[in-house]
Structures are given as structure tokens and as C-alpha cells.
Amino acid sequence: MTNKERLQRHLLQLDNRGYKAYKDIQGNYDFSEFTLIIDYVQGDPFASPSKFRVIVPPNIAQIPRQLFNSRSREIALRDYLTRQFDKAAHSISSKRGTGKSGTIAVTRFGQEVLERTSAFIISSNTSDVEDLGGVELRFAVGLPASGRSILGRQAAEMLCEDIPRIVSQSLKYANLNTAECRRHVETVEDADWLRQQLAEKGLVAFVADGSILPRRTGVDNSPLLNNAVAFGSPPSLKVEFNCPNRGLISGMGIPAGITLIVGGGYHGKSTLLRAIELGVYNRIPGDGREFVVTSPAAVKIRAEDGRSVAGVDISPFINHLPQGRDTAQFYTENASGSTSQAANIIEALEVGRRKKEEGRRKKEEGRGKREEGRGKKEEAQPFVLETQLVAISEGDLVPVLLVDEDTAATNFMIRDRRMQELISKDKEPITPFIDKVRQLYADYGVSTILVMGGSGDYFDVADTAIAMDNFQAYNVTEKAKEIAKNYSISRAAEGGENFGEITQRVPVPASLDPSRGRRDVRVKVRDVDELAFGTEEIDLGAVEQIVDSGQLRAIAAAMVYAKQQYMDGKRTLSEIIDLVMADIEAQGMDILSPFPEGDFAMFRRFELAAAINRLRSLSVDS
Q1: pLDDT tens-digit map of 31-46
Q2: How far is 348 from 399, CA to CA, in rounded Å?
Q3: What is the DSSP letter of 191?
Q4: CA geometry: angle at 501 spanning 608 and 462, to 5°?
Q5: Is the CB of residue 514 less than 8 Å from the CB of residue 533?
Q6: Which residues make Cβ contacts (< 8 Å) with residue 142, sequence separation at least 6?
Q7: DSSP state, 520?
Q8: Which of 253, 343, 586, 602 is the most buried (most CB within 10 A)?
Q9: In Å, what is the CA distance from 26 to each residue of 36, 37, 97, 106, 119?
Q10: Which spans in 97-248 are helix H?
Q11: Residues of the chain with pLDDT under 70
């Protein structure tokens, strides 16, 4: 009797028994063409589904090595196989019983191609299949029940009939749409390649000609297809690249420095910025923004009324508070819009900035390379993704700040001449962003892309101005400079000579407690915007670059891991995050969990820091 037949018989024998008897099926089963592994069995039909894996060996899956012979291609292929398994599961599996019974599902996903723990590629060590790959696919199963009684026959159908059909349809290369699979892999590889070229060309973002930027609705992230205007670059900002697969591609390059996106309401300013802020991730073919790529260290900054702030040095922006309150180590349980926006900027700089001297040196080296390479035609080169998405060393990259006036605090962004006359500087503790944005670039190499439709004062500090008109971009830099020259605002600069120092903070280990004061760890994720950590509820609704619930689950696990492994009261937050990210890069996200997880998705250091910083119990030392 085969393993499959034994499992089938065992499930039939469990029919009508109490649900907890399902625990007996945990283990490994040889299904001839694949191995079925049951890692965890739920104790109740209404609890989280059981955790399953299938391992399809290379001689059965027969995936050509050329589809996973680089890190970029491998991540894309894993994403594609996850989506195919999900598609087949929805087609084949059906509801059986009550609660979550009858479900066969992988992790949830959207338009982004992220590294996930749902699928892995298995390389063969045997010479006869050395150019082929196998697959490990992780998924969840709602074992069927009626009330709390086992439906053994239905379970046998699910595990012994449905799962083999799903595996055959989605994890055997011969049964896939091979052209679609290749397109998926090559699209992601080209986007990764483009992102790696930005710094060499002195750019912080690239928006390809022909991109469809508008989305269908505010809650539907798929592209708007009817009446959508394809993006076109202004000739003066147009750059070209020769991608490894797609070949020649052109589009708008946004240079380092301070860039304004201006224009009338509803003409596409915020839509462009949203595409840029999500350009830190790759997208599936057909998304419309596949070749909108951004520096991996780009961080969206906004006001966030009510958030907690723990010991952040916001003195570059806010100082001399009434009653002598300290802003060099500022605490609040309920930040205002301006205070929260200042803290958000400093926190991003704290975990992502270079040292000032190194930043200046790199900036000079980059300028020299751009001069040397001017006029040379781009040539296609073999592409090797240097590191995975999380490990693209954002800590070694200068952050790029992305700000939209619609979600910014007005008094933080600007203080015009008339207000300066009415309220003298010694009575105003806030130094507006307009007086610090140039210093950020000069002192730390931090670029800013800013949507601004209501104040022309920023013309004085901008390097580039892009006007959006009916979703088309126009370079209006010269016109903006001319207006700034002809209509002097005569406002006094309030930022001093330099931006100021960026202070590193040391988390107090006891202030992060995921165990609710007991031995067991309690973390729970709700969609992409809320995380329960011990007794605390962390609101991440304003952290707009968390796009996948799997990212938040991995962030929650990384917080626990950081607490257990590296928080010693001596290491800074930046050092702790460096160590966590290095461990993930070396050993994968499975290091964050005691058993195989299928629903983790890769995150960046900035979002991990954002979750820790919004923990209301957090306490730090300077």
C-alpha cells in the first residue's frame, strides 16, 4: 500500500470522529510524483487552516534552469508558481463542510512581485537533471468538518484527489503557459536591472513611456484600461536604457536633487507620485507600471496625527518649545501633524542614511562617472541581481523622501513672508521643510520628490519642476526658475547653515514585550495596516509602502526575532535592523519562525523600523 493509499484509508477511518483526531495525519506522504508534508493541523474547523507543503522533484517539475539562474529570475519564478497554484486551487477545490472547511489556498497577493515563503525552487544534484528545477510550495488547507465532526470522505477527496490535480496543473512546467511564465520572469528581471542603473545615471526614479499610471478605483489596484492616458516623457527628461530582455526602453528620468511635481487638481500629480513610491517593488506584467522603478531607499513621508514618538531628535525641524520641552529626545503619545512629519523624516534618515562624509564622496564619484559616461550608447549586458529585494542594502543608500502636500502638515511645509512678519521666528518653534530640503541634499545627499500645487515658494529651492496636465508630464523647470526670479517672495530663510545632526537611538529591550507578560508570544496582523504586538496595537495605516499582509506578518516575526536576538540595550536601532536583515539575507525568512511559514513576504528595513517606532511602549536611550 502506497503512502497516498494509507492516507486515504486513514482519513476514511476518521469520518465522524472529533475534529482534533485530524492531528493523527501530521507527517510526510509519498505521492509518487511529489511528497505531501503536513506540518501543522488545526485543532478546530473555525481556527486558522492547517499548514501543508508539497515538494515536486526536478525530474517531475522539469523547470528549465534559465528561468531561475539568477536571484531576480528565481524570485519572479517563485511568484509566478504561487499565482498558478492559487489559480488552480480556486478552480479545483470546493467548499466542504462548515467554517473554513474545504479551502485550499496560498498566501494573499496583489500586483507586486515580492519574495515570498510560499514557493521555493529546488536545484538537482544529479547529473541527468542538472539543468532542471523542482518546487516546494506551501499552502493552507481547511480540513473539512460538519460542526466539529470530521468529514473523512471529503478530506480524502481533497488531499488525495484535489491536491494532485492542483500540483499537476500548476507545478509541472509542461502544463504551464511557458510563454507567459517567461514573460513574467523577464519583466521582473528587466525592472530589477533598470533599478540598479538609476544611481549610475544620477537618477532617483524612472517612469517608462507608455506606462498606465491611473488605477481602476481607490481599492482596486489594477490598471484603469478605459480612457487611460499612456505616460509620455518630456523630451528634455527622456532617458533610454537597453534592458537585458526587452531591449531599448525610454522614459522620464527624475534626477537626484529636489523635484517638484506641479499641476492642476485631478491632472495626475498624486497618481505619478504613488507610482513612484511603489516603484521600490516590481509588478506583474499587465500592471501598467512594470517599468516605473525607484531608488530602493525611497520613503513616503506624511503627517500622521496621533502617532506616538519615542525619543526622536526632531530639533532640526522643531526647537524652542514653550515650557522648555526638549526636542533633542522628544517623546509624545499624541503627535501633531507637523511633529509627526518631522519624526517620520528623522526616523527614515536614522536607519537609512550614509555618514555625511561618505555621502559627499559617493556624490562626487557619481558625478564623475556621469560625466565620463555622457554620450556613450547603452549596451545590453548579462544581468545578475546583486541581492534580493530586502537585502538591496537600503542602509547603504541615501533615502529619497517622497512628499505629497495633500497628506502633509501645512505649517510644516511652508511659512510665507506675511506670516513671518506677523509671527517672529523666536515665537515659532517649527522650521518649515522649505528651509531644510536643500540642506538635506547638500549635507546628506537626500533627494526629495514633492507634489506641490498650492505654493510657488518651492520654486526657489527646486532643481527640477515637472507639470502634470491630463496625466502627461512637461518639464517646466526653466519657467519655474524664471517666475521665481521675476516674482521674488522676499521670505527669510529660517533653517540656519546646516541641516543638523541625526542622532542614533538605542531601544530599551524591556519596552518591547510581545508576550503580554507571559511566556507565549502574541503577534497578530490585520490586513496591511494594524499589528497586535503583545498588549499593544500598532497602527501602520500611514505607512503607505507596506503593500502586502505577508509583509506585515514577516515584520511582526522580525520584531520578535530582533527582540530575542539583538536588543541588548547597547545596539542602536539601525544596528539591530542591519543584523536582522543580514540574517534574513543569509538564511531566508524561515529564520523568523520556528516552523515553515508560507505567508511571509519580503519587507524593507524602513517598514520594519516604522513598526518598531510606532510601538507605544517603546523607550529609547540616545
Answers
A1: 999 999 999 999 888 8
A2: 7
A3: H
A4: 85
A5: yes
A6: 42, 45, 49, 50, 99, 100, 101, 102, 103, 104
A7: S
A8: 343
A9: 10, 8, 21, 19, 20
A10: 152-157, 163-171, 178-197
A11: 1, 97-100, 125-129, 353-396, 516-519
